[in-house]
Amino acid sequence: MRFLLMHRLDESAPEAWNPSKEFIESMGAFIQDSIDKGILITAEGVHPSAKGARVRKTRGAAIKATDGPFTEAKEVIGGFALINAKDKADAVAFAERYAALFDEIEVEVRQVVEFEDIEALNG
């Protein structure tokens, strides 16, 4: 099974967007170990919302694009990881090890919908 882990950071915390050398080294070691074990498929950090945009379409309305920052949200997506796990409990355990690398973070764990899942729903 694949799981998407999205981590949220406090957008106003400068250290969240300017990691220390020690953090970069410990994260690099964690990532390499996770790749070597066949758990991690990919992982990336993202820039703050000030450098992003939001595209929204609502029923019966035109598509609207808005540039960041998104001041209504204190916590924003700071990055993501796509992992292999045998089940949700395994994915949550991985997210806990990942979260331990940070001082403050929230990690959302979501199972990826596979083609077989769609077939089973329509079957």
What does this structure look like?
With 123 residues, the chain is α+β, with helices and mostly antiparallel strands. It is 33% helix and 32% strand. The strands form two sheets. Strands 2-5-1-6 form a four-stranded antiparallel sheet. Strands 3-4 form a two-stranded antiparallel ribbon.
Key descriptive features of the protein:
single chain, 123 residues, alpha+beta, four-stranded antiparallel sheet, 4 helices, 6 strands, 32% strand
Order of helices and strands: EHHEEEEHEH
Give me the secondary-structure category.
alpha+beta
DSSP strand content: 25-35%
Poorly predicted regions are none
Number of strands: 6
Shape: flat
- Radius of gyration, rounded? 17 Å
Number of helical regions: 4
Major pleated sheet: 4 strands, antiparallel
Helicity, as a percent range = 25-40%
Strand order of the largest sheet: 2-5-1-6
Mean pLDDT: 90
End-to-end distance: 20 Å
Question: Oligomerization state of this entry?
Answer: single chain
Fold blueprint:
Blueprint: E1 2-10, H1 14-17, H2 21-36, E2 40-45, E3 53-56, E4 64-67, E5 75-84, H3 88-99, E6 106-111, H4 115-122
Antiparallel strand pairs: 1-5, 1-6, 2-5, 3-4
